[in-house]
Amino acid sequence: MTEVNQIIFTFITIIFCSSAFATPANLLTPPLRVIIDPGHGGNDQGTSVQLSTQLIKESDLTLKLSQKILKIIQEKYAEKIQASMTRTTNRYVPLQKRSSLSRSEKTDFYISLHYNSAFSSALSGTEIYFPENNKIDDRNLAVLDAIKQDLVETGRIKQSLSLTKIFVPHWKSSQVKIRRAPFYVLEKADAPALLIEVGYLSHPEEQKTLLSDVHQDLAAESIVKALLEFKENRDKQLN
Ligand SMILES: [Zn+2]
């Protein structure tokens, strides 16, 4: 092979190899890193329902739902979403520890799951809470730092609201109310965060739905679908 031919051959080889092994654009985008927080656990059982001889605890329901979410992600969407849980067994995890996980691991989204209860058995439906801008008040920062911090915090709240809006059409099981509240895990998480009160265990009809496997599967699917759509939107902005 002459030197010129060798150069042409090398050039063609490079073109062929780079196109044959080119990575599709969607694989270049990083996975969405999500922390799923099953509310309560251990001695803190949250609310509960007494069904004949069986006591059903909120802490068990949130763990079950979180495990379903994790299973769907790991089986079907492992390359798109990296998910972990603040607890994987029935144990108590302090709130500070739960929210600090979003700082120690680089997290794109933090979702805390709960089941609701009220004195009035008439209340029903899903409630989604996103953070308020309270982070600045408890920090003694210089003006410029405070402005920077405020921008970061505003971005975090915007993204939290953005997932909330994506979430609503995917949630088919009950009416959704969107609210802001200074819940500890929402305020202390560094990542965009949502707290979902899946439904009211104190509402007799809704209770039956919430305790069914069908509903829990549906709820888990809806949350995963919303996360996938959030990732797609984020990837469009990255590309
Ligand atoms: Zn709760």
Summed up, what is this model?
With 239 residues, this protein is of the alpha/beta class. It has helices at residues 3-20, 25-28, 58-76, 95-104, 143-170, 184-188, 204-211, 213-238, and strands at 32-38, 48-51, 54-57, 81-85, 109-116, 126-130, 176-180, 193-200.
Question: What distinguishing features does this structure have?
Answer:
two-stranded antiparallel ribbon, Aminopeptidase, 239 residues, binds zinc ion, six-stranded mixed β-sheet, globular, alpha/beta
Helix and strand layout, with pairings?
Blueprint: H1 3-20, H2 25-28, E1 32-38, E2 48-51, E3 54-57, H3 58-76, E4 81-85, H4 95-104, E5 109-116, E6 126-130, H5 143-170, E7 176-180, H6 184-188, E8 193-200, H7 204-211, H8 213-238
Parallel strand pairs: 1-4, 1-5, 5-8, 6-7
Antiparallel strand pairs: 2-3, 6-8
Helix pairs in contact: 3-8, 5-8
The structure holds zinc ion.
Note down, in words, how this protein is organized.
- The chain is α/β, with parallel strands linked by helices and 239 residues long.
- The protein contains eight helices and eight strands, in the order H-H-E-E-E-H-E-H-E-E-H-E-H-E-H-H.
- It has a single domain, classed as Aminopeptidase (3-Layer(aba) Sandwich), CATH 3.40.630.40.
- Helices cover 49% and strands 19% of the residues.
- A six-stranded mixed β-sheet has the order 4-1-5-8-6-7, with helices on both faces. A two-stranded antiparallel ribbon has the order 2-3.
- Helix 3 packs across helix 8 and helix 5 (143-170) packs across helix 8 (213-238).
- The longest helix has 28 residues, at 143-170.
- Bound molecules: zinc ion.
